Amino acid sequence: MTENRELFAEESERDAFHDECGVFGVYGHPEAANLVYLGLYALQHRGQESAGIVSSNGKAFIEHRGMGLVADIFNADVIGRLEGTSAIGHNRYSTQGSTSLKNCQPVVVEYAHGGLALAHNGNLVNFHELREQLERSGSIFQSSSDSEIILHLIATSKAPTMADRVADALSQVRGAYSLVMLTERELMAVRDPFGFRPLVLGNLNGSPIVASETCALDLVRAEYVREIEPGELLVINEDGIRSLRPFPIAPAKRCIFEYVYFARPDSLLYGRNVYQVRKMQGKALARECPADADIVVPVPDSGNAAALGYAEESGLPFEMALVRSHYIGRTFIEPRQAIRHFGVKIKFNPVVELLVGKRVVLIEDSLVRGTTLSKVIPMLKQAGAREVHVRIAAPPHTHSCFYGIDTPTREELVASHQSVEEIRQSIYADSLGYLSWEGLYSFVDGKREGFCDACFTGNYPVAIPQAPANSQLHLFEANDDRSAAAPR
Ligand code: SF4
């Protein structure tokens, strides 16, 4: 090894929650695979490690998967080979060091009733229990993926129809799943009874489309029909769309953090535009935590809409005084001579001309470990900012997510063990303020029903296994290939 060091997973990348996949499906369109490819492009923010498409020509599946970004994996020849009028696709996010082609989705199996392809966004919390049961009854697993569990449960179900087998299988799993499935002749989409992860239905000239977010419908010019409801199973075939409710009714628990951070601002999520919700939260933040300052600056990009709201409400000018590079990879070579804040500078650079002598309100969507801000704030001050007042557009993050989001361990979540004042000192801010519950839910007049906010409260709607002291990935450490068991 040379003196240069290769740094894996830049610090600021680890100082964040990460989404765990996007799904997309098309039924009955002559360019099904091409549409899925575009849909995955629009959903790239939900997963950048790998992507895959499986199409059906009515008799057999054609599949292609690869590591990396959608643009790198597919080309015109590949898309041309993915023939058929129905197709599904998947984007996967993975934690550091867990890259493997065998973990790419959609997963495809052949069983007694034919072929079945599945793309999963979510995480099953009773993974170990189910796997043990299945292994005891003779199932052999190719991976340690929780998606494979669903396939085994479907394959071993004695129910008469495909929809019944899916319902039977899913009645045994607990946790988060937004699934898109394809047989040779049918497309199915299903959302867990709590509806943790999003899933929507669209229509393109009569061809039904399902997607994690509406931004994917927009790209293919499909019309948004509606949200697929928590606990709803859609069966789409030549007879049309059938909506089934095979699970006991549960109180909906849609992920509130999709609004704060994960979803694209141009998406319509749970019936509301994400950008507008973030802006309202920023306005609430300005009312709750005003600052004696000169300019409002977002930590781009996810802080942008909240910062605009804060600026509008406070009357302070909005300035993009911190610029983010969108073109960094997950590794880079560090120079021989140490450069101050090198890691964070790869991602963010201040605009000196906007900062000199200014008192800055810095808006961030959430504060996870605090390591990024502890570098960004000294960088802003070095660039000339007189004061930096940090405002977080969410309440303090105190718990990990077990429903399909890759989160740091609870110990790593700084708000789980430090006071606001201690955090302020550790990130070198002049003041620090968080959005209240009322502010977070200001877009629904403060009503919290219908949402999961367990990562802020620890009130988990679906009981999680014991010893959640580590991240959800730790749940699956019994398996050799940790990545394969990582939530999707
Ligand atoms: Fe979303 Fe947090 Fe609930 Fe996970 S725990 S589903 S990130 S609100």
Largest sheet: 7 strands, antiparallel
Are any ligands bound, and if so which? iron/sulfur cluster
Superfamily (CATH H level) name of the largest domain: Aminohydrolase, N-terminal nucleophile (Ntn) domain
CATH topology of the largest domain: Glutamine Phosphoribosylpyrophosphate, subunit 1, domain 1
Number of individual domains = 2
Distance between the termini: 34 Å
Gross CATH architecture of the largest domain: 4-Layer Sandwich
**Helical residue percent?**
25-40%
- Give a count of the beta strands, DSSP E runs of length 2 or more: 25
Radius of gyration of CA atoms, rounded to a whole number: 23 Å
Sequence stretches where pLDDT stays below 50 over 5 or more residues: 1-10, 467-488
Strand order in the largest sheet? 4-3-5-2-11-10-12
The average pLDDT score comes to 89
What does this structure look like?
By secondary structure, the protein is α+β, with helices and mostly antiparallel strands. The chain folds into two domains: about 5-255, Glutamine Phosphoribosylpyrophosphate, subunit 1, domain 1, CATH 3.60.20; about 275-445, Rossmann fold (3-Layer(aba) Sandwich), CATH 3.40.50. It is about 30% helix and about 25% strand. It has 18 helices and 25 strands. The strands form seven sheets. The chain has a seven-stranded antiparallel β-sheet with strand order 4-3-5-2-11-10-12. A hairpin with a 2-residue loop joins strand 6 (about 105-110) and strand 7 (about 115-125). Helix 6 (about 145-155) crosses helix 7 (about 160-170) and helix 10 crosses helix 11. The radius of gyration is 23 Å and the shape is globular. It starts with 5 loop residues before the first strand and ends with a helix. Mean pLDDT is about 90; it is low at about 1-10 and about 465-488. The structure holds iron/sulfur cluster (SF4). Iron/sulfur cluster (SF4) binds near residues 255, 401, 453 and 455. Iron/sulfur cluster (SF4) binds next to helix 17.
